[in-house]
TrEMBL record:
Protein name: Dihydrolipoyl dehydrogenase
Binding site for NAD(+): G189, A190, G191, V192, I193, G194, L195, E196, E212, G280
Keyword Cytoplasm appears in the UniProt entry: yes
Organism in which the protein naturally occurs: Thermomonas aquatica
Family: Belongs to the class-I pyridine nucleotide-disulfide oxidoreductase family.
Length: 476
């Protein structure tokens, strides 16, 4: 074992939370190291975590490719554009995705070099005394001491005991690398991953059946948003079955046999060519902590932290998917930066009340803040204003009139409590709500801000005006 190397900050994990923490710490003049074990398809280190390698970025690449193909057969004729037998080259599409991944993982490596972050490639384990032992890919071991250690280990796909991952039963990684369009695709879980990847392969011609255990579709979202989204997905041919409890799978010559009970308790079976298991993710903390570190894990395997992401052990912090809160890349971004700034003696804070949520389906789904259902459960008096994209000139001109924007405001103070959207490009529009809420803005504030015409953002403007029944382009 070589001599211990000393750093001001040692980060375990180079995913969204980890690489943001490392770069910000280095910017603040702290000697920083970052450890990551991931390898790319070429066998070389690939920084960026699940998000850049097999999550956010590659899935959006496939979503965009499949959207282009779907629109050729389902939307372009409205514009007077016609094609003769559109075709998809799946291998070329996946290669494009891989190129984008390589570009961005390489970009993180370049940012590390530019900011003088020392990268170590291998598996890091926290030892007592803020020592991180790294088993590098070349077989060697190094020990790094950090005055501060930031754990950013990320998360892994949850594997069901009766549906082990393999050639025919896959997780999000496998669903991003299919070499051909499966004739029949089964999906367990109608969450973000299931809906997005199910949409990709449905658009390309697969028969997609999604089995969801909960009785309500997208229970975390506003009920009205969920209802509209479900209606649009049904039009697209996604077969979403709610209240289904999957009990077993068996791979046979004719496909994967999936056994489940439906919402009425009746035994059912479907046969699919590929089965995507998308039932959630768990903190990747197995083997992360040696005995005696003092760092605690909760019953879900997450690192226990306080509101400032501190573990209670002097100089040890944890951020991102391996701690409490939503498993969202941008939540990890903010936590990583906040902790780096706290270490440097600066203010650092993450407002969990204004973290936006987005599902990149067609139509897109996005929200920030409280839903109507949550406000009713809390007994909080509120006012709601909504506006449909069908009344927005830009949306109709784009032939994408589905969906609406809803603004929720406190009945007394008019402070915006939530914004809920379903429709084209709402992943961008939701940030009007985020910004307004961060500055404690009111619905009236938003209603009095000039929005360009014609633009999709006019739906936000009119929804804010509708809170006080003064929307111009709809009956109040």
């Amino acid at each position: 074992m070589s001599e211990v190397q000393n750093f001001d900050v040692v980060v375990i994990g180079a995913g969204p939370a980890g690489y943001h923490a490392a770069i910000r710490a280095a910017q603040l003049g702290l000697k920083t190291a970052c450890i990551d074990a991931a390898l790319g398809k070429d066998g070389k280190p690939a920084l960026g975590g699940t998000c850049l390698r097999v999550g956010c970025i590659p899935s959006k690449a496939l979503l965009d490719s499949s959207r282009q193909f779907w629109n050729m057969g389902h939307l372009f004729d409205q514009h007077g554009i016609s094609f003769d037998k559109p075709a998809i080259d799946v291998k070329k599409m996946v290669a494009r995705k891989d190129g984008i991944v390589k570009q961005f993982t390489g970009g993180i490596a370049a940012l590390f070099k530019a900011n003088k972050v020392s990268a170590f490639y291998g598996y890091g384990q926290l030892q007592p005394g803020n020592i991180v032992k790294v088993k590098q890919h070349d077989g060697s071991e190094v020990e790094l001491h950090g005055s501060n250690v930031i754990i950013a280990a990320g998360s892994d796909s949850i594997e069901l005991p009766f549906a082990k991952f393999g050639e025919h039963i896959i997780d999000n990684v496998g669903a991003l690398d299919l070499e051909a369009v499966p004739k029949r695709l089964g999906v367990i879980g109608a969450g973000v991953i299931g809906l997005e990847l199910g949409s990709v392969w449905k658009r390309l011609g697969s028969e997609v059946t999604i089995l969801e255990g909960l009785p309500n579709f997208l229970a975390a979202a506003d009920a009205e948003v969920s209802k509209v989204a479900a209606r649009e997905f049904k039009k697209q041919g996604l077969d979403i079955k709610l209240g289904c409890k999957v009990s077993g799978t068996e791979v046979k010559k004719d496909g994967v046999h999936v056994s489940y009970t439906d919402d009425k308790g009746a035994a059912q079976e479907i046969v699919v060519d590929k089965l995507l298991v998308a039932v959630g993710r768990r903190a990747a903390t197995k083997g992360l902590l040696a005995d005696g570190t003092g760092v605690k894990l909760n019953e879900r395997g997450q690192v226990e932290v306080d509101e400032h992401c501190h573990t209670g052990v002097d100089g040890v912090w944890a951020v991102g998917d391996c701690v409490r809160g939503p498993m969202l890349a941008h939540k990890g971004f903010e936590e990583g930066i906040a902790v780096a700034e706290l270490i440097a003696g600066l203010p650092g804070h993450v407002n969990f009340d204004t973290i936006p949520w987005v599902i990149y389906t067609e139509p897109e789904i996005a929200w920030v803040g409280k839903t109507e259902e949550q406000l009713k459960a809390e007994g909080r008096a509120y006012k709601a204003g909504s506006f449909p994209f069908a009344a927005v000139g830009r949306a109709v001109a784009m032939a994408e009139p589905a969906g609406f924007v809803k603004v929720l405001a406190d009945a007394e103070t008019d402070t915006i409590l939530g914004m809920h959207l379903v429709g084209a490009n709402v992943s961008e529009l939701v940030h009007e709500g985020v910004l307004a809420m961060e500055f404690k803005g009111s619905a009236d504030d938003l209603a009095r801000i000039c929005h360009a015409h014609p633009s999709l953002s006019e739906a936000v403007h009119d929804a804010a005006m509708a809170v006080h029944k003064r929307a111009i382009h709809k009956a109040n």
